[in-house]
Design goal:
Layout (H helix, E strand, L loop, with lengths): L1 H19 L9 E2 L9 E3 L1 H9 L3 H11 L6 E7 L2 E6 L1 H11 L13 E5 L14 H16 L3 E8 L4 H12 L12 H18 L3 H13 L4 H21 L6 E4 L1 H5 L2 H12 L2 E3 L3 E3 L10 E4 L7 H15 L2 E7 L3 H13 L6 E5 L2 E2 L15 H19 L4 H21 L7 E2 L2 H4 L6 H17 L16 H23 L3 H20 L8 H21 L9
Parallel strand pairs: 5-6, 5-11, 6-7, 11-12, 13-14
Antiparallel strand pairs: 1-2, 2-4, 3-4, 8-9, 9-10
The protein binds one RNA strand through helix 2, helix 12, helix 13, helix 17 and helix 19.
RNA sequence: GCCCUGAUAGUGUAGCGGAUAUCACGUAGGACUGCGGAUCCUAUUACCCGGGUUCAAGUCCCGGUCAGGGCACCA
């Protein structure tokens, strides 16, 4: 409906300009005025035309106003200075909007564009920690947004099963006492993390271990110890998957990088790169990208002939190029240089250059995290803490059976975490503080509460969905603002998908909840003259809040 | 040293070159609590510095300052 009123506004201006014999600019600019006294849409065409016509904007506006015809969806068109302001007829508009809102509100028709979206892809050398969480939450939310916007999306987790880090864990298994089960921790990924930490300690004391690890890598690329490597990775990954499941983060496919070495793809990639003429060789084979503005050459193979992460990544990206129309990667900004090198290499070989979404780091107040040094807060810890704090809040307010309270607490805890990350633009550096991440007084819990409140109201009124919208219903004030915001939701989805951004959805959910709460205070629903219309409105808010939260991977409980 | 990214109220944050800069927390008042108070209303305080482009700059360009990151035969 929002797009519809934009179109009506543009059409009316176009018609007016044609009537005046003025050449119509390619795009008629519209914006949303800063306050309701200035209407619902405003156009700045006169500013733009002023330069070309050598006339004052205000005069051009006056001319347009003299001939413009008001489309039926608008009540009036007025000029405020040089602006042309459109005022929506909220009686007509609101009814039409409510008729159009279904369960899947916000969804766009299929776009016939396949997106391969890689995210999380943390190394299986320990549990996910809060440094990884940003990748997972941005990636998963973006996948949901793209799907709602009509894209065909496949999410992939790229599993590093052959890097030095994994080889170190295998070394530990071969050389230290005890099997993985003997390491402390409830979850498999935590045990692997402990072992990894242990091996790092040994390595510090005895640098000679490094050669042994190199030997393991070499042998593995030649096909030895395959089961052992696989076992370690699967073991760790299964623990990580549990965590992601609890966070509501989903991947359609796990792609193991080792496959690209074993099936010869990496060798073929290296051969093809040689043929491009951009490679050079001393002890190692490298790619010289100076011509593309990158001073640092990209090393493709170690001196012992084994491959490197980036080399395998090139092979992986060529595969993704085959699978999708649009390739999106979510990466920490520390990968900027490497990603640029890989992107250029992929293009050299005729693949599609990925769009990369970079995010800045999450650090602890005392500094950065490190799996190697054992300094991190795991996502499991974070979620447990979120749950127990949320449970405390739930119990403080209401007396509920334990299992119900538990479910609600889980939704609220998860919501707090996901919202904490999703609401920020990715280029902001985050310093993690427990009380910021887990605040229930406001933030996500208040959005979930607005949803629960809507549910309760509908239940109380025995809402069926068949209620009629009364004649003469014409929203004003808070109610009008609520209608306006509802109409915007599909636009927010579309724009977020196009910009590959998640946080506008988070902001929108907050705005909608706030506006609904104000409306709830100021406007009676049950027993009012417009009970039918308002119940339909509340139901529409309910659906929209639920769908918006769902885009962020957050569950909206019906009671809390 | 070179490269990338940030800088907006006490704190955290949004902002397509356009009319009075968003939201949240905090603080201080207040409301109502008969559709659930995890509520509502009011007040409060901000675009790092210096140049430039433009009818119009928080937004674009150049130069500083501060902060984070990168510049591996790690990933």
């Amino acid at each position: 409906m929002f797009r519809y009123i934009e179109k009506e506004a543009r059409d009316s201006i176009t018609a007016a300009l044609e009537k005046l014999g003025i050449k119509v600019p390619p795009e008629i600019k519209l914006e949303e005025p800063p306050n309701p006294q200035l209407g619902d849409l405003a156009s700045t065409v006169s500013f733009e035309l002023a330069g070309k016509l050598r006339r004052a904007p205000i005069e051009i506006t006056a001319d347009i106003m003299s001939v413009i015809e008001t489309p039926e969806i608008f009540e009036t068109i007025e000029s405020k200075g040089p602006y042309i302001n459109f005022f929506v007829d909220y009686g007509r508009f609101s009814s039409r909007l409510l008729e159009s809102i279904q369960d899947d509100y916000g969804s766009h028709p299929p776009r016939d564009e396949r997106v391969i979206l890689e995210h999380t892809s943390a190394n299986p050398n320990g549990p996910l920690h809060i440094g990884h969480i940003r990748n997972a939450i941005i990636g998963d939310s973006l996948a949901r947004i793209l799907r709602m916007a009509g894209y065909d999306v496949e999410t992939q987790y790229y599993v590093n099963d052959m890097g030095r880090q994994i080889a170190m864990i295998v070394w530990g298994l071969l050389n230290l006492d005890g099997d993985l089960e003997d390491y402390p921790g409830d979850k498999m990924d935590h045990r692997v993390g402990k072992l990894y930490f242990e091996v790092n300690q040994r390595l510090k004391e005895n640098p000679g271990i490094r050669d042994e690890v190199d030997e393991l890598i070499r042998k593995y690329e030649a096909g030895e110890n395959e089961e052992l490597f696989r076992k370690v990775v699967e073991y760790c990954l299964s623990g990580m998957e549990e965590t992601m499941k609890r966070l509501h983060v989903h991947h359609d496919r796990f792609v193991w990088e080792g496959q690209f070495v074993r099936d010869g793809t990496v060798d073929r990639v290296i051969e093809s790169l040689r043929k491009t003429g951009y490679t050079g060789e001393n002890d190692v084979l490298y790619l010289d990208l100076e011509e593309f503005g990158l001073e640092k050459e990209l090393v493709l193979t170690r001196s012992d002939g084994t491959s490197l992460y980036s080399t395998r990544d090139i092979a992986y990206h060529l595969q993704k190029s085959e699978e999708g129309d649009v390739i999106i990667d979510v990466l920490g900004s520390d990968h900027k240089l490497a990603a640029e090198q890989v992107g250029i290499a992929v293009e050299l070989l005729g693949g599609k250059r990925p769009e990369v979404i970079f995010y800045e780091f999450i650090t602890l107040p005392e500094g950065s995290m490190s799996t190697r040094r054992g300094v991190f807060i795991s996502v499991d810890e974070l979620m447990d803490e979120a749950h127990s704090r949320a449970l405390h809040e739930v119990k403080k307010r209401r007396d509920l059976p334990d299992d119900v309270a538990d479910d609600i607490a889980e939704s609220i805890g998860n919501g707090a975490i996901r919202y904490y990350i999703a609401r920020l633009s990715p280029e902001k550096h985050i310093v993690f503080r427990w009380d910021d991440a887990l605040s229930f007084e406001r933030g996500c819990a208040s959005i979930q509460y607005a949803h629960a409140r809507a549910c309760k109201l509908l239940e109380k009124a025995s809402f069926t969905g068949e209620e009629d919208i009364e004649d003469g219903w014409k929203p004003e004030g808070d109610e009008r603002e609520l209608v306006r915001l509802l109409a915007r939701f599909p636009v927010v989805v579309e724009e977020s998908a196009l910009a590959r951004r998640v946080h506008p959805v988070a902001q929108y959910a907050q705005d909608l909840a706030n506006t609904f709460n104000s409306f709830y205070r100021s406007t009676p629903v049950i027993g009012s003259d417009f009970e039918g219309a308002r119940l339909r409105l509340v139901d529409s808010v309910r659906k929209t809040l639920r769908n918006a939260l769902n885009l962020l991977g957050i569950h909206a409980p019906e009671t809390m």
